[in-house]
Write a structure and sequence with these properties.
The complex is a heterodimer of chains A (115) and B (114). With 115 residues, chain A is mainly beta. Helix content of chain A is 0%, strand content 54%. In chain A, the strands form 3 sheets. In chain A, strands 2, 5, 6, 10, 11 and 12 form a 6-stranded mixed sheet that branches. Chain A has a 4-stranded antiparallel sheet with strand order 3-9-8-7, with no helix packed on it. The chains are: A mainly beta (115), B mainly beta (114).
Chain lengths: 115, 114
């Protein structure tokens, strides 16, 4: 079975400082992992995805994530936070074997950015 | 932005009444999904469709039914709404299925069941 755990429900950073959002996964297969972002009162948008190619994955808006099999982690980072990064972020793993496969969403990390 | 429109965007109803939420897409994508989002739970799949008249259940399908009579429309029906179905419902579409992980989401429909 597959699962994801987002280690922080809320992260607060100052504008211009680095962002780190942590995600651990569990998967019986070689995992497909994703990060989605949700701005207030909006739908979710795909930030980046890992599907067994390069372990360092670059996404939109300067975000990147590194797949570490030994640590079963897929943490999301950004060198310098911007006010527009304030949103909720979801770590997602593909659930193999479920109906039409399925995406299992973490519970989310709300990112606050202080001026 | 992907052409996905959900309606209604907000609805308040009473326990026991039927409710239908509509998802309309202009992208001609084959796959369509209904999720619900609840605090502390992330998103959970209710039902999905892999073509006209082809639908299947997700992990939280009890109390919900769906229909897809045209490529562009995917309807979610609560036959008899309960307070536990108070949630934000999101429609999503994909051209290549969940395997790609790339879903495009609508802006959500907030349903309150009193």
């Amino acid at each position: 079975a597959q699962s994801v755990t987002q280690l922080d429900s809320h992260v607060s950073v100052s504008e211009g400082t680095p962002v780190l959002l942590r995600c651990n996964y569990s998967s019986s297969y070689s995992p497909s992992l994703f990060w989605y972002v949700q701005h207030p009162n909006k739908g979710l948008q795909l930030l980046l995805k890992y599907t067994s190619a390069a372990t360092l994955v670059k996404g939109i808006n300067g975000f990147e994530a590194e797949f570490k099999k030994s640590e079963t982690s897929f943490h999301l980072t950004k060198p310098s936070a911007h006010m527009s990064d304030a949103a909720e972020y979801f770590c997602v793993v593909r659930n193999y074997g479920g109906s039409q496969g399925n995406l299992i969403f973490g519970k989310g990390t709300k990112l606050s950015v202080k001026p | 932005d992907a052409g996905i429109t959900q309606s209604p965007r907000h609805k308040v109803t009473e326990t026991g009444t039927p409710v239908t939420l509509r998802c309309h897409q202009t992208e001609n994508h084959r796959y369509m999904y209904w999720y619900r989002q609840d605090p502390g739970h992330g998103l959970r799949l209710i039902h999905y469709s892999y073509g006209v008249k082809d639908t299947d259940k997700g992990e939280v399908s009890d109390g919900y039914s769906v229909s897809r009579s045209k490529t562009e429309d995917f309807l979610l029906t609560l036959e008899s709404a309960t307070s536990s179905q108070t949630s934000v419902y999101f429609c999503a579409i994909s051209s290549s299925g969940i395997g790609s992980g790339e879903l495009f989401f609508g802006e959500g429909s907030r349903l309150t069941v009193l």
